Amino acid sequence: MNVRAGMLALCLPFLLVQVNDLSAQNLIADVVSHEKEAVGQKCKAAEYAEDFVSLVDFNNDGLDDVITNLGAVRCDGEVGGLCGEVGCPYNFYIQVAEGGYFFAANADLYGYDVKKRYGNMVLELKANAASCGRDDSEYCSMTIRVRGARFETISKK
User: Fold this and answer.
1) How far apart are CA 81 and CA 53, in angstroms?
2) Which pTM does this prediction carry?
3) Measured in Å, how far apart are the chain's first and last C-alpha atoms?
4) Backbone torsions φ then ψ of 37, nearest 5 degrees
5) Is the Cα torsion angle 21, 22, 24, 28 positive or negative in sign?
6) From the CB of residue 144, how many other CB atoms can be counted at a distance below 10 Å?
7) Residues 54-94 pLDDT 10s
């Protein structure tokens, strides 16, 4: 993972790493190009499914944020070639009003949904059971709300 200078906070055990450096020098103008460049360093040939990038305002500020799904990449002919035993890497980018995006967090997930609860968008993540402190074969469901750039766990089950 390419982590820029800044304070890292492990927000969810084994799951979500949040980056708290919002300096202008770390803003990314084009998230898709940025992600494809990173994939190009891992794959000689890459094909991208339509769910590679999702635009959604997950932090409720009125600006579309970006979620990338590296499980949607066919890397050197292998579907899910960038995934591991605990899911596929998802990267979360938050758009700022000044223009551009910053890399906010990443997580290895089996999938996610974005739902509206009490008027606000929340992320419902499907992760490895260890993320909920369990050692079983069922996945862990976590509900996360994002306020500004802070990811907060509402529930785990």
Assistant:
1) 17
2) 0.83
3) 27
4) -65, -45
5) positive
6) 23
7) 999 999 999 999 999 999 999 999 999 999 989 999 999 99
